[in-house]
């Protein structure tokens, strides 16, 4: 038979009941595996941060964001400092969730699928008089944590008391807080404040304090039930047009992309300490999944190769200029001018000198969602909550998720209640003369019932082989075909 197993003789001697049971088990295993390829489902997103992800907090608190913000997608100001959608909007779209309502927006808000606490101008460090006088927002990360805590507590109370579905349908479900995705994107304003108020070497000494405050915020969220964290590092602040104009670099302090070298080094030092802290938190918070996302690399790549990706000069903003802010008026040489937008925002990276255009946000998000810039390298759709259980003691088969390898299989003979552990360390299931062929040879002489168990395993292994060939393609060409 040239090494090929003939199952016909053994199958004929097995009762129909056992056959049906074995086939059913095979199908269940395959269905479970195939289901994992679709990723996990997050019922909600809770976002904390600054203007990079603010979808209405500052607009609801200090006055509406001015036109022409929102012109490209919403057709009106929509609480975002951009011509359209932000990275958080595209993340929600990827997870098939609606755009997040700002927690502070009292008009027509819906928190069923999460809430956005991010506020433009906010910092990691608690706000004080100096921060506020410099123009930064008092809604610091600490305040945003208090807002989340209040949302959770009041939602739980209303769910227990309210009989009207019109109320509960717009609230988070209490049991879903631990199953939701928690995104943090902050730190840029802390760096900006340091640039404004101190010399760089002095501010570097304060970075550990900011990182410790960030870590404390993550721990508080964990105590409130958060389990999956998607953490963005900070972007290349030395590449922002506003920073370059207001703090002209000294000779020799410009990198190959045209950015202020020392300011980007400041951001890189912040990111290094942030990544180290996230690694420490992984060991400190049992059951938590923390994903560090290198958004700095994505943004710097876009800025340094703008022409390659179809964008114009990255240091020229689309809306407003150094004479007048976007959406505002100013008198220049005796003439009142308005900070209008450019003719084609989709060709610009910078919207207003600080924030990114929708086109740039879309480009960046397509570089981070697939996990290639994350640690661990998980796509956002696969960043599922960890399952804490001892698989060996429970006798379960650890089915691999998409893109991961199987470390071992515990093959269970359901009929004679015996099992054997098959090592797969460093191997992937493959067809032909590979590992499956060796399994066939090793198990050819087993009894008929165990053969059916092997057949069930083969179905799972073959599914793994098929799934290993599936790939995501999130805009790898660099084009901007926006989703509706």
What does this 3D model show about the protein?
With 484 residues, the chain is of the alpha/beta class. It has two domains: 8-39 and 389-468, no CATH class; 45-382, 3-Layer(aba) Sandwich (Rossmann fold). The protein has helices spanning 8-12, 16-36, 57-62, 87-94, 129-133, 141-161, 165-168, 188-197, 200-204, 207-223, 241-246, 261-284, 295-304, 358-368, 391-394, 435-443, 448-468; strands at 45-49, 114-116, 181-185, 228-232, 289-293, 329-332, 335-338, 374-375, 408-413, 418-423. Helix 13 crosses helix 14. It is globular. The relative contact order is 0.13.
Fraction of residues in helices? 25-40%
What is the radius of gyration?
27 Å
- Helix count equals 17
Kindly report the CATH topology of the largest domain.
Answer: Rossmann fold
The biggest sheet, with number of strands, parallel, antiparallel or mixed sense and barrel status, is: 6 strands, mixed
Mean pLDDT: 80
Shape, per Cα inertia axes: globular
Q: Supply the CATH class of the largest domain.
A: Alpha Beta
- Class based on secondary structure composition and strand pairing: alpha/beta
Listing every helix as H and every strand as E from the N terminus to the C terminus, the arrangement reads: HHEHHEHHHEHHHEHHEHEEHEHEEHH
Counted beta strands: 10
Query: Roughly what fraction of the amino acids lie in strands?
Result: 5-15%
**Widest β-sheet, arrangement of strands:** 2-1-3-4-5-8
Return residue spans where pLDDT drops below 50 for at least 5 consecutive residues: 1-15, 30-37, 388-449, 465-484
Distance between the termini: 57 Å
CATH architecture label of the largest domain? 3-Layer(aba) Sandwich
The tally of structural domains comes to: 2
Family: Belongs to the 'GDSL' lipolytic enzyme family.
GO molecular function: hydrolase activity, acting on ester bonds
Signal peptide: 1-35
Keywords: Glycoprotein, Hydrolase, Membrane, Signal, Transmembrane, Transmembrane helix
């Amino acid at each position: 038979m040239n090494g090929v197993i003939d199952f016909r003789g053994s199958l004929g001697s097995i009762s129909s009941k056992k056959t049906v049971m074995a086939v059913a088990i095979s199908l269940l295993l395959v269905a479970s595996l195939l289901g994992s390829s679709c990723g996990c489902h997050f019922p909600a997103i809770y976002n904390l941060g600054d203007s990079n992800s603010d979808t209405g907090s500052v607009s609801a608190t200090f006055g509406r964001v001015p036109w022409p913000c929102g012109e490209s997608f919403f057709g009106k100001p929509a609480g975002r400092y951009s011509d359209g959608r932000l990275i958080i909007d595209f993340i929600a779209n990827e997870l098939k969730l609606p755009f997040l309502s700002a927690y502070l927006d009292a008009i027509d808000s819906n928190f069923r699928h999460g809430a956005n606490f991010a506020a433009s101008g906010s910092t990691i460090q608690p706000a004080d008089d100096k921060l506020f006088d410099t123009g930064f927002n008092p809604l610091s990360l600490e305040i945003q944590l208090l807002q989340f805590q209040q949302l959770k507590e009041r939602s739980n109370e209303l769910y227990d008391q309210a009989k009207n579905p019109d109320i509960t349908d717009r609230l988070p479900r209490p049991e879903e807080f631990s199953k939701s995705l928690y995104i943090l994107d902050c730190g840029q304003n802390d760096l900006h404040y340091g640039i404004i108020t101190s010399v760089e070497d002095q501010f570097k000494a304060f970075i550990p304090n900011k990182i410790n405050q960030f870590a404390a915020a993550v721990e508080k969220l964990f105590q409130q039930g958060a389990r999956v964290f998607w953490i963005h590092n900070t972007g290349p602040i030395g590449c922002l047009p506003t920073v370059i104009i207001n703090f002209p670099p000294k000779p020799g302090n410009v990198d190959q992309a045209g950015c202020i070298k020392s300011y980007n080094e400041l951001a890189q030092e912040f990111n290094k300490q942030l990544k180290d802290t996230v690694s420490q938190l992984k060991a400190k918070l049992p059951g938590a999944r923390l994903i560090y996302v290198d958004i700095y690399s994505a943004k710097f790549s876009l800025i340094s190769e703008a022409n390659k990706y179809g964008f114009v000069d990255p240091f020229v903003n689309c809306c407003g200029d150094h004479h007048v802010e976007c959406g505002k008026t100013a008198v220049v040489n005796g003439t009142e001018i308005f900070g209008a937008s450019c003719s084609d925002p989709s060709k610009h990276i910078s919207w207003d000198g600080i924030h990114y255009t929708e086109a740039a946000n879309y480009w960046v998000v397509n570089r981070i969602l697939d996990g290639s810039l994350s640690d661990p390298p998980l796509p956002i759709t696969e960043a599922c909550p960890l399952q804490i259980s001892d698989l060996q003691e429970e006798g379960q088969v650890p089915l691999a998720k998409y893109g991961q390898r199987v470390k071992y299989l515990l093959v269970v003979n359901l009929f004679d209640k015996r099992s054997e552990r098959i090592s797969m360390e460093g191997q992937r299931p493959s067809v032909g003369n590979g590992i499956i062929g060796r399994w066939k040879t090793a198990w050819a002489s087993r009894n008929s019932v165990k053969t059916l168990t092997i057949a069930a395993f083969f179905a799972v292994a073959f599914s793994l082989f098929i799934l290993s060939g599936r790939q995501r393609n999130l805009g790898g060409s660099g084009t901007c075909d926006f989703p509706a």
